[in-house]
Structure formats: structure tokens, C-alpha cells
Design brief:
about 675 residues, alpha+beta, Immunoglobulin-like, C8orf32 fold, Jelly Rolls, 3 domains, eight-stranded mixed sheet, 36 strands, about 40% strand, DUF3857, signal
């Protein structure tokens, strides 16, 4: 009996000290916490998040998908205040068939004179915004945010669409407790995919449960007259099974951002759900996403995709005039490509479908990605070219690892020629054939051919970012350097330059060129091919005078040979990488430096020539030095042939880049000729 009593006391004590996650049950202990004991660097912590998803049934509407969310977040300091604002996306295309958000409730809790006080979320801090034609968001900011406060809110989202939102099991801040529950009736088959790149693995259990719904029916009987009619009601039980997915997770580490990663979401612990099949009570079956061919057929048959490709009457007259007497396919491609870029401006919205329709976009002069690149494809086909749209997923949207209608959010155009594919994106005025904007370069795209077939197209091996620079100078008696710079930019380097300096005046350009170059004065700036969008290159040059370019110590001069082009810092500082380094484009930089020595000086020492490689032929750095009379010539080149560096190769790459920094910052020492001769 004594043992039973002791056990009972232990259970009571455990219950009293157990964390209470019910909405509004905020403790003084939570409010008194000044940091996360397991992650003291965190500026905020999610104390509790609960997400429950279930299929609600009504006789009038059938099944609707309901998601209920509760979050409790501790904010330690001002760096964590962003977590007091929440964005809840919802589908809204302007029709009556939209997702509905309701039951929003929230409070900010804080300690005042040792007591727990709270401020309610006011409706004036809640905003509904339309983000594009199809999506809106509910945005709200919790009130009275101070260091140490706790914000807690909950809401309900109801959707008439049979679809499940992605579920994040990892956030950018630590999570102490996460609960997830989804119950799916047996009639709806979803493919579930956990992000294979995530380092944190969320454990999800799966089980079966029974469900019963009461279904009412109404019948009329009796004579033809209303007075003789009788109404009877029947109630029956509808029994079926549900699959239940559950997660009960604790102490989830934050997804810590690392430099040179385009999208950290690629590594977030996430579950994605793809609606694959419906199997009704009568055993009728409708497939949705079972394989890539059926997925592509569903997309192509949509009026806002394949239906747009079949339209041409809106542009035929203009295109006939544009292509009159043109016999070269290369010229046809160039003319059509630049015509679309100048005719329709991108409205900054993504989309794997046309938003307003190609005809309206052509008339209005603006459209989303789908409008523009489906229009481009239709024009290229009209001109007799083998052009097809390519579905892709931008970096911010992740990688479609499985057959999915929702995994794509962008379209480009492709022209298939013998042994090659020419990729085009007309949303960027300065993009070039096979030189895509960085947002569109993500793993693979799916080309959708007119006859219904599809195939993967590689996007991970774009043409390199090329920069060739010639730096010439002489060293003046006042220790300044005076000379000229010639730069030739090709491919994506030319695209970036044009985009950066678009609509920038001459004075602003000069200030930008002079930035981070020391006490420099630039003049005689000249540029070629900037406005020639058919040219893959941009050339510019300028003269300059750089004060205090040389350091004088005693009778010796110390020169950094590459002047303002020297890489002075190893930007790869991390001791260890968790994720791959990502370079959107391969790099190919070449510098030729010609130095005229000052009169009366000779070289006492200079950097030695060297050549190093990274991981075979994935990277090369060479630094070659030679001298002829009073001239010193340096040729430095740096190539990265791979767009990824794996974490296992990071140490080697860090040393490789460190060698570049060491060599480019090494000084050349000059000494007066007569002094050297007497030593």
C-alpha cells in the first residue's frame, strides 16, 4: 500500500510540473526563461506547435479539408521580433470556390510586477492580401512585443480542394515540442514524401482507425395533392477507415543558414503530400499523379497551358512582318526572342500556367512567366521551329523528386535541334539563349512535347560566367599607379552587368566602379555591346589614377601587383559545412596584369608562379609571373567547373581558395638599382 501511495504521489507531482500546452495556459516559468538552454544562440524558440488535419464531411458539401494550427513562440530579444508576424497562405482565384480562414485568436503574454499579463491580437493588425491571381495570404502581427514575451495564436483553414499542405517539421529557430496529426479517409490516396536531403529526420507513425458518419435521407410519399403528401426521414451509418499519420517530436534543432546556399528549404525536414488517386465507395477509380506521363498529360490538357499554345491569330500579322525575308533559323530565333522580351514585360509572378492568357498579355504588354514563355513557344512553333515548353521548379520551390502536378512553378521554352537543346526565358530582358536567370536554374526541367511525350532536360550545367580583365599600369614617383583597365564579360556575366547597370546614369556608374578600389579616380569610361541583346558579351574600359598604390618602407617599395583586383579575404571561413556550396554558374576568370616599373628600380622579389587544382578538374587556379626589362607580367586565372562543392570536399576547397588569396595578396618588392648592385 505504501508503494502504491508513493507512486500516486509521484504521478501527481509529475502532472503538476508537466508542461501545459493548452491554448492560453502560459506559465511564469516560460515567461521567465531568458534563453534556450540547448540553443543559447537562438533569438526565439517555438515552445509548441500543433497541426491537425482532417476531412470534415457534410451532406451538402461532401468532404472538405480542415487544418487547425496552434503556435506558442518565445521571443528572447529584438532579433527575434520577426517571429511575432505570421503569414498564412490560402488559395483564392476570385471565385466562390476558395479556401476559408477562420477562428483566428492570439495573445501576447508578458510578466508585469510578477504577474502574467496578456494583450489580445486586434483585428486592425490582421490583413488579407492578394499575392497573385491564385493565392492570397492572411498576415497578422502580435501586439506589444518586448524582450522575453510569448506570443500564442491559433487559426482554422477550410479547403474545398482535396489537397494537403506541405508540413514543416523544422524551422529556422529551435522547436521544443511539435505535434502533428493527419487523418485521411480511405477514398483519398496520397503519396507521402519526406525530404531526402534533410539532416533532421522526423519520425512519423502510420496507423488505421475506424470512422462512422451519420447520413440522413428524406423521402416524400402519398397522393398527387400537397395535402396528402407525407415526408419521412431516414438515418443510416456510413462506416469507413481512415489512415492516421502522427508525429510527436521534441527538441528539434534549428535549420541554420549557411552562406553559398541558394535555398535552405532544400534541406528542411518537410513532408509533401501528392493527391494520387480517388477510389469511391462504389470502387470507381480516378488517377491523378501516378507517373510522369499522366501528370504531364493533365498539365498539357489544361486550357491555361496547352490551350494557350494553340493560339496564334493575335500575333500572326506582327510576326509575318518581323520575319519577312528571313531565311536563317538562328536569325528567326533571335528576332522572335527579343520581340517577346520587348513586347511583354514580366509582372514578377511565377506560374506553370498562363495567368491572364497569352492574348490578353500580348495586348496589355504584361504577364506572368506562363503567359510570356508559352507565347514565346507558340511564336517559335509558328515560325517552323521545333519548340516546346519546359516545366521547371525554381530554387525557392524545391525539387520535384516524384510525379507531381504541384512540383513545378515556372516555364521556359526549348528549341530542340540536332544533338542540342536551346533554352530560352523571355521574362528577363537580358537573358540569352542558354543563359537563364539564376531563379530558373534548378536541377532538371521537364520538356513537354506537342505530341504528348515528355523528358528531363538538364539545367545544372549552364554556360560559365566568363570575365577577362586586362590591368595595365605604371608606378609614378608619388607612389600612385596610373593605367587602364579592359574588361570583357560573357554569358551570365554579361547578363548580370546589363541588369545591374540598367537605367543607371554615367555618374552613378563611375561611383559604383570606384567603390572598394581605394583612392581611385576613373575617367574615359567606354562601353560596347551593352544594348545589343544579340551579343553574348559586354566590353568596357576606363583609365584611372590610384593614389597610395605603393607602400614605401626605407629604400624599398612594396606593391600588391593586382591592385584593386586582388582577392584579399578568404570568404570561406566556416570550420565545417553541413550543406553543399552552391554556385549558380561555373566560373572562368582571367586577369592579365602588366606593370611598368618606376625608373631606377628593379625587382628584388616577386610572387612565385604556381598552379593548383581542386578535386581533379573541378577547379583550377594558376598564377604565372614573368619579367622582361622594366615590365612585369602576371597572368592569373580561376576556374570552377562544378556548380556544387560537397561538404566532404569543403576543407580541400577552403585550402584551394586560400591559396588564391595568399598568392594574390603577396607583395612584389622593388629596390633602387644602385642599392641592389652594391649588396
Amino acid at each position: 500500500m505504501k508503494n502504491v501511495f508513493s507512486l500516486l504521489c509521484l504521478l501527481i507531482v509529475s502532472y503538476i510540473h508537466a508542461q501545459d500546452y493548452r491554448f492560453g495556459k502560459i506559465s511564469k516559468e516560460e515567461l521567465s526563461e531568458t534563453s534556450n538552454a540547448k540553443a543559447p544562440e537562438a533569438h526565439a524558440t517555438i515552445l509548441y506547435v500543433n497541426e491537425e488535419v482532417f476531412f470534415q464531411y457534410t451532406e451538402n458539401e461532401g468532404f472538405t479539408v480542415v487544418k487547425e494550427v496552434q503556435k506558442r513562440i518565445k521571443i528572447y530579444d529584438k532579433e527575434g521580433v520577426d517571429w511575432a508576424t505570421e503569414h498564412v497562405p490560402f488559395y483564392d482565384n476570385g471565385s466562390s470556390n476558395v479556401e476559408n480562414l477562420s477562428e483566428l485568436k492570439g495573445y501576447t503574454y508578458y510578466l508585469k510586477d510578477g504577474k502574467v499579463e496578456k494583450d489580445k491580437l486586434d483585428k486592425d493588425n490582421v490583413f488579407r492580401e492578394q499575392t497573385n491571381q491564385y493565392w492570397g495570404q492572411l498576415k497578422f502581427t502580435m501586439p506589444n512585443i518586448t524582450d522575453g514575451c510569448i506570443v500564442e495564436f491559433k487559426y482554422r483553414k477550410e479547403s474545398p480542394f482535396i489537397a494537403l499542405d506541405d508540413v514543416d517539421f523544422q524551422y529556422d529557430i529551435p522547436v521544443k515540442k511539435l505535434e502533428f496529426n493527419a487523418r485521411i479517409p480511405e477514398y483519398f490516396y496520397f503519396n507521402k514524401y519526406l525530404n531526402p536531403k534533410a539532416k533532421y529526420v522526423a519520425k512519423i507513425t502510420e496507423s488505421q482507425r475506424n470512422r462512422v458518419e451519420n447520413v440522413n435521407s428524406k423521402q416524400r410519399s402519398g397522393g398527387a395533392g400537397f395535402s396528402n403528401t407525407q415526408t419521412s426521414f431516414d438515418s443510416s451509418k456510413w462506416e469507413f477507415k481512415e489512415t492516421e499519420y502522427m508525429a510527436d517530436l521534441e527538441d528539434i534543432p534549428a535549420l541554420v543558414e549557411e552562406p553559398f546556399v541558394d535555398n535552405m528549404d532544400m534541406y528542411r525536414a518537410t513532408a509533401k503530400w501528392e493527391y494520387a488517386m480517388y477510389k469511391g465507395p462504389d470502387n470507381s477509380i480516378k488517377n491523378y499523379s501516378t507517373d510522369w506521363e499522366s501528370v504531364i498529360k493533365t498539365i498539357y490538357d489544361h486550357s491555361s497551358f496547352g490551350g494557350q499554345l494553340s493560339k496564334s491569330n493575335y500575333f500572326e500579322k506582327d510576326l509575318d512582318a518581323l520575319l519577312a525575308n528571313v531565311t536563317s533559323n538562328t536569325e528567326r530565333i533571335s528576332l522572335i526572342y527579343n520581340f517577346v522580351k520587348s513586347k511583354v514585360a514580366w509582372n514578377e509572378f511565377y506560374g506553370d500556367y498562363a495567368e491572364n492568357g497569352v492574348k490578353k498579355a500580348y495586348k496589355d504588354g504584361t504577364g506572368n512567366v506562363g503567359d510570356i514563355n508559352l507565347m514565346l513557344t507558340a511564336m517559335l512553333r509558328y515560325a517552323g521551329l521545333n519548340a516546346n515548353p519546359v516545366l521547371i521548379s525554381t530554387k525557392s520551390n524545391g525539387i520535384p523528386l516524384y510525379p507531381t502536378r504541384n512540383g513545378f512553378n515556372y516555364i521556359i521554352s526549348a528549341i530542340e535541334v540536332p544533338n542540342d537543346v536551346i533554352l530560352l526565358d523571355a521574362t528577363d530582358r537580358y537573358a540569352l539563349p542558354n543563359v537563364l536567370p539564376s531563379r530558373a536554374i534548378n536541377w532538371q526541367g521537364r520538356i513537354v512535347r506537342e505530341q504528348g511525350s515528355s523528358a528531363w532536360v538538364d539545367l545544372l550545367h549552364p554556360v560559365s560566367e566568363d570575365e577577362k580583365t586586362t590591368l595595365q599600369y605604371k608606378i609614378n614617383p608619388d607612389l600612385s599607379a596610373e593605367g587602364r583597365v579592359y574588361v570583357k564579360l560573357s554569358n551570365s556575366a554579361a547578363m548580370k552587368f546589363r541588369s545591374k547597370y540598367d537605367n543607371m546614369g554615367d555618374d552613378e556608374r563611375l561611383r559604383d566602379l570606384e567603390e572598394d578600389k581605394g583612392e581611385i579616380e576613373i575617367s574615359n569610361y567606354k562601353i560596347k555591346n551593352e544594348d545589343d541583346l544579340n551579343s553574348p558579351t559586354v566590353d568596357y574600359s576606363y583609365t584611372y589614377v590610384l593614389k597610395n598604390a605603393v607602400e614605401s618602407i626605407g629604400d624599398k617599395l612594396y606593391v600588391s601587383p593586382m591592385l584593386f583586383y586582388a582577392t584579399t579575404e578568404n570568404i570561406f571561413k566556416q570550420e565545417k559545412r553541413n550543406y553543399s556550396l552552391e554556385f549558380t554558374y561555373p566560373k572562368d576568370y582571367h586577369y592579365t596584369v602588366s606593370i611598368m616599373l618606376p625608373e631606377g628600380y628593379t625587382v628584388e622579389s616577386m610572387p612565385e608562379s604556381t598552379k593548383v587544382q581542386f578535386n581533379g578538374n573541378e577547379g583550377t587556379f594558376s598564377f604565372l609571373v614573368s619579367q622582361s626589362a622594366n615590365m612585369v607580367l602576371i597572368k592569373s586565372s580561376f576556374q570552377i567547373n562544378s556548380t556544387f562543392v560537397l561538404p566532404s570536399d569543403y576543407d580541400q576547397f577552403k585550402q584551394f581558395f586560400g591559396m588564391l588569396v595568399e598568392k594574390e595578396t603577396e607583395k612584389m618588392v622593388l629596390v633602387k638599382s644602385e642599392l641592389k648592385g652594391t649588396e
